[in-house]
Amino acid sequence: MRNFFATRLGTWTGFAAAALVLFGLAPLVLSGFRLGLLAQFTCYAIVAVGIGLAWGRGGMLTLGQGVFFGMGAYLMAMHLKMADAEFRNGPGAVPDFMELAGIRELPAYWAPFSSPVFTIAAILVLPTAFAVVLGLAVFKRRVKGAYFAILSQALAGAFAILLIGQQSLGGFNGLSRFRYFFGYNLDDPVNQQMLYFIAAGVLLVVVAIALQLRRSRYGELLVAVRDAEERVRFLGYDAANIKVVAYATAALFASVAGAIFVPVVGIISPASIGIVPSIMFILGVAIGGRASLVGPVVGALAVAWAQTALSEQFPSAWTYAQGLLFILVIALLPGGIASVAALTKRFQRTPAPVEAAA
Amino acid sequence: MDLFIGQLFTGLSTGSILLLAALGLSLTFGQMGVINMAHGEFIMAGCYTAYVTQQVVGDAGVSLLIALPIGFLVGGIMGWVLEALLIRHLYHRPLDTLLVTFGVGLVLQQVARDVFGAPAVNVTVPEFLRGGVDLLGTTVPKTRLFIMGLAIVAVTAVTLVLRFTPAGRRIRAVVGNRDLAETAGISSRTVDAGTFFIGSGLAGVAGVALTLIGSTSPTTGQSYLVDAFLVVVAGGLGRIKGAVVAAIALGTFQAVFETYSTASLAKVGVFVVIVVFLQLRPQGLFTLRTRSLA
User: Fold this and answer.
1) Using CB atoms, which residue from B95, B109, B229 is nearest to A145?
2) Is the pLDDT of residue A353 over 50?
3) What is the CATH classification number for the domain harbouring B229?
4) Domain that residue B26 falls in
């Protein structure tokens, strides 16, 4: 039998099963607190799907996804802060943290964010446009591989430092203490559950987009660029454009994840989007299997869960575990967990399916 | 005029710090194409070497002079072990090397945290490096002058070794064309190990020097690493002279930019300048001409 999940029926079955688990099973068995955690992990999983596309399929190691995650998060946080301030003190009010910092006038760039429509449009458009511009600048000049990885990492560092310097964005402490999410009280457990459903729904949509991209002609081209960029160029394609699409899509996913992350967790600060958090996004993708579709999701959920479960009780041991996971998984199992099945098949001396090759 | 000279010195000194951190990288990343994210932790190991040496020896001046060669050995041996255990098996997967060595860096940071504690420690600056010197109307701290001098010595030493010793000739041969070098009877494996030893040792030396101008914590190395990588990228792979020019240019740029705006904007400015610069010269300042398509 051919791989069942590669067929149309199999795809729908897979999505239906995932939806059943996320929307049916999880709210039944998990307490409100744990459901909130799952919503947070789901945000990481959404980022991971994007990284899987850019890195696993496109070969672009983006060490700066925290930038796009942070953009989405800060844009959303600005709107929530504005809405809270207007709810308390009427239109044109200054958010509470600015009052504490001694800022009496609302900065001009904050004003449009009192509009929910503008905010959502900005979350979707701004990071994507930034990724397109940066991607064109970098890929058109054929900056790639290690150079790109280092540039993207430097970008994450510069972005975090820039934010720390901005008092009108909360500086080092970031933005926190949100009361309402588009008019819904965030302290209400029902609304928290709603947020989880939004996160889970977005995850399914994002996976569906990634799947469509993989199965399209574009997906083939992307893998071709990863494996033999020069050959694709000789065939008449512009490799840079192909890369930019994957990079911008990954940026969009990360931005949306950041925007959901803010109301779920209730805080965003430069510490959660700098160099180290950005590279941590990679860990889950690597463990799950960078080139597979579901691998990054599973890996990201597993890493986030392990971090929550272990890091408070054994902070030292968890850091060692993280480091060793990076070393062992990438050195010994570059295809991640998703490649284990293919490896065992090879062991039984039957030809491995082409799809599973990392 | 005084302001200008003052800024020039700040730039030169920031540049020489960058250069010390980047010199080892320009050997391992530039010459061998290996991205070693644990390089920052080798710098951190150098810092702690200076700290421990001072605890043992006591006298600040003597311990600094002893710590420099010990730092070189500590960094070098760590790099040599890393090359032998991990990097050697990953030469054909450069991006994976990056992630694996990041994992190594995480482990090393945690080791430092468990051994020395998370709070920063300080190394006493020796008597003869305290205070400043009046130069062309501005006062320059002696520690900064010492670091500039050390950077000059290190660059000169590396250049001389690469150019005039048999070992350096072998390194250049392997960088130029690995297959041809092997055909000529050079063991590229030995050369790789040696290059990595020297490059990582330089990180240790940089770490010892950095204790003079700042405190040491487990994350010290990380803060220098990204800037050091940018220096190597902007300077061009495989070129010591590129690293020198790029380090001084970036240091000066950052110092001047900081005077007219803030330190955080200066970091962003450096990033923008490098992206724009790579538009003009995607291969960096000085390029090693090859016929490879990659």
Assistant:
1) B95
2) no
3) 1.10.3470
4) 2-120+130-280
CA of B282 vs chain A CAs: smallest distance (Å) = 6
Residues of chain B in contact with residue A279, where contact means CB-CB under 8 angstroms, are: 99, 102
Among the partner-chain residues B99, B114, B263, the one whose CB lies closest to the CB of A316 is: B114
- Counting the structural domains of chain B, the total is 1
Residue B287 lies in a domain: no
Rounded Cα–Cα distance for residues A79 and A97 (Å)? 14
Q: At A198, which amino acid appears?
A: I
Q: Can you tell me the ipTM of this complex?
A: 0.85
Q: Which residues contact B112 (CB under 8 A, 6 or more apart)?
A: B41, B44, B45, B48, B218
Interface mutation vs chain B, best among A143, A330, A332, most B CBs within 10 Å: A330
Which pLDDT tens digit goes with each residue over A273-308?
988 899 889 999 999 999 899 999 999 999 999 988
Which candidate in A150, A279, A316 is best for mutational testing of the B interface (most B CBs within 10 A)?
A: A150
The residue in chain B having the minimum alpha-carbon distance to the alpha carbon of residue A63 is B99
The answer for B132, left when phi > 0, alpha when psi is -120 to 50, beta otherwise, is beta
Q: State the pLDDT confidence band at A356, using cuts at 50, 70 and 90.
A: very low
How many CB pairs below 8 Å do chains A and B form together? Answer: 117
Tell me whether residue B12 is in a domain. Answer: yes
B90-122 tens-digit pLDDT: 888 888 898 999 999 999 999 999 999 889 888
Write down the mean pLDDT value for chain B. 86
Rounded CA separation A113/A72 (Å): 13
